[in-house]
User: Fold this.
Amino acid sequence: MNILHVLNGDSTAHSFRDTGLEGDVLVWREIFSQGPLSEDIDSGDFWEARSKWICETFGEKAAEYSKTVVNPLEKLKEPYDEVNLWFEFDLHCQANLLGVLALLTQNTDLSPPDVYLICPGDFPGKTNFRGMGELNGEELVSLYDSIRVQLGEPDFSVAAEAWKQYVRSDTGALEKWINENNFWGALQLLKPALEAHLRRLVVNADGLNGVEQRLLDIYRNGATTRLAIYQQFWDTDKIYGMGDLELDLYLERLKEQELINL
Assistant:
């Protein structure tokens, strides 16, 4: 059987080598929780826009982006019998998961692979579990054995609608869909992630979205270094799954408004 494992980043990939699980590996390195998106994920325009934004925002080179991010995605077009998706509960991972599912939907032929999801919201013995990068090979295998679930057509339908709503970033439409959708299937952790995204879309009377206001509150409560702000945000708002580079995007906006001084 031809098996593909799609992993949610290099930190998980490092431990995955010790699992002994059969199959090829694709490391997902995009961050669909930030930057421009459009519904047609399989178009050249989509990836050109992503490349331009990533390169301008993080100082990457277009050739390196193609090599490390885009080119590996060709594996999703190969005739695998089984695809295992390793993604977590937070918005960062759930947005990427929606992208992967959209690509699988557009790339598969009349004989699509069996698709399984391994998506932990917590892990026994880890009180502040933030992701599978914290786990060793044996612990990853325990997730594979205990929580792996096969995705069916209803799950793909939910994911397709969620992807459409997510990329549109229409606050009213997204809130309405979240509140009215009564079926989440195997994607039970998608709803709280989208609710977090909704808080990020809503702008308050001071012109700040939910993440910016939270970071400002942390700063005003005495965390006046980037590291201290990162740590407090990660402790209380891990639902976003943001790393320091992503948080810096929001901190820079606050600096430009002269609301913080770092």
Notes: The chain has eleven helices and five strands.
